[in-house]
Amino acid sequence: MVIDDSNTIRRSAEIFLTQAGCQVILAQNGFEALSKIHDHDPDIVFCDILMPRLDGYQTCALIKRSPRYHDTPVVMLSSKDGLFDRARGRMVGSVEYLTKPFTKESLLAVVGRHAMPPGPAADG
Predict the structure, then answer these.
(1) Of 57, 68, 74, 113, whose CB has the highest number of CB atoms within 10 Å?
(2) Separation CA 40–CA 73 (nearest Å)
(3) Where are the domains of the chain?
(4) For the structural domain made of 2-114, what CATH number should be given?
């Protein structure tokens, strides 16, 4: 799942992940994501920090509070690469922090670390 209010970021992530064989769910904001997460059970969530109404920290915290999704990895996305932002992301339960604009390689590396099932490595 990719949550970002930027159509460009959502589309880039969708292209990169789809090319790697992933199914992708998109959401424009935290509220939309919270309704879609229950329908789709994503293996990993990429969540923008700066979004209107419900920011990425709040969205991540709500996902992590749910017993059903507590173990779902959440990766924070931000154009800022500050220590404070990284620490705050960890405090609300994110497993990693990815700076935008991300590359296909960096996005897929995060998926490989947090969302790939154990066993033989998948191609891509």
Answers:
(1) 74
(2) 15
(3) 2-114
(4) 3.40.50.2300
